[in-house]
Design brief:
The strands form 2 sheets. The protein has a two-stranded antiparallel sheet. Strands 3-4 form a two-stranded antiparallel sheet. It has helices at 13-29, 87-102; strands at 54-57, 64-67, 129-132, 139-142. The chain has 161 residues and is of the alpha+beta class. The chain binds iron/sulfur cluster (2 copies).
Length: 161
């Protein structure tokens, strides 16, 4: 006898708020999961750790984890603005790196033929960056990223609130 189908998990109210925050940032800054010419997050002034594939963006309009190949319209050449990340920015970036990237094995490339825009938890499969409502992440991720919680999206629409 075959196993009964498990219920498909649903996003919560927390996800609704966080997804809206991410969408607001994305729309305000034209954030996308692909470079703009030679400009990309990992050669931007505000990308905290240039040696990492995913890092904290300390620009005050973003303050989120971003992929190295992403881009937004606040891009600045390294060293051109005369400000630096504060101690608090560095602390937040390190905390998110350990809790999200390392603990969840979040990478900015597909793995095992699986990627975020084919995952149940990726809110909008048509966007190059979108909100991931898996309870261990609850952040914006890239269309071609992956983490250990990947689960195939059903054929029907995924993640609509
Ligand atoms: S300011 Fe924009 S381009 Fe620069 S790291 Fe942040 S998200 Fe990327
Ligand atoms: S659960 Fe993991 S694989 Fe799925 S969308 Fe979120 S980050 Fe991507």
């Amino acid at each position: 006898m075959s196993e009964p189908d498990l219920p498909v998990p649903e996003p919560t109210e927390v996800d609704e708020q966080r997804a809206l925050e991410f969408i607001r940032i994305k729309e305000d800054t034209a954030l996308k999961g692909r470079p703009e010419g030679d400009q990309r997050c990992d050669n931007c002034h505000f990308y905290l750790e240039t040696s990492e594939d995913i890092s904290y963006c300390w620009h005050d309009k973003l303050e989120i984890m971003v992929g190295g190949e992403w881009w937004c319209d606040r891009w600045e050449e390294v060293g051109v603005p005369d400000d630096e990340p504060s101690a608090e920015d560095r602390q937040t970036g390190m905390k998110l790196k350990f809790e999200l990237v390392e603990d969840q094995q979040w990478v900015n490339e597909p793995k095992f033929g699986e990627k975020c825009d084919e995952c149940l938890f990726y809110l909008n499969p048509d966007d190059s960056v979108s909100y991931c409502w898996h309870p261990k992440l609850r952040v914006g991720v890239g269309h071609d990223h992956w983490c250990q919680w990947w689960e195939a999206a059903p054929d029907s629409e995924t993640g609509a609130f």
